[in-house]
Amino acid sequence: MADQLLRLRLTKALPKGMELSHFSVLNHLAYVGEERTPAQLARLFHVTRGAMTNTLNRLDVAGYIHISPDWNDARRKLIAITPAGRKAREFALATVIPDLASILSTVGEERIRTALPVLREIRQTLEKTD
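Now predict its structure.
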């Protein structure tokens, strides 16, 4: 339930037309600083290739990513974040951070730090069973 409430709150804070899945992909691409294939992104986000293709197409139309052929393997495509994508991500972060800071101050930094290892272990356990 907490996950759903947090997702709803974050989605409301994102720029118009941006979905949480879009932000997540932009955030990942900005963080790693390297191109990724659609298959890599689908695996990372635990979604089907079709779902990732849909997300990537929307990001491409918005100008937030660039899709290029992989010159080493013509069957693959490479995804990179564009300057507009970086700007959209930064805007989204600036919009979401006050909400997250409010949650942090209400719950308490130490309690969140204590919970993170447990949540991480749950995620890792669930990833092994996929």
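The domain at 2-129 is CATH 1.10.10.10 (Arc Repressor Mutant, subunit A).
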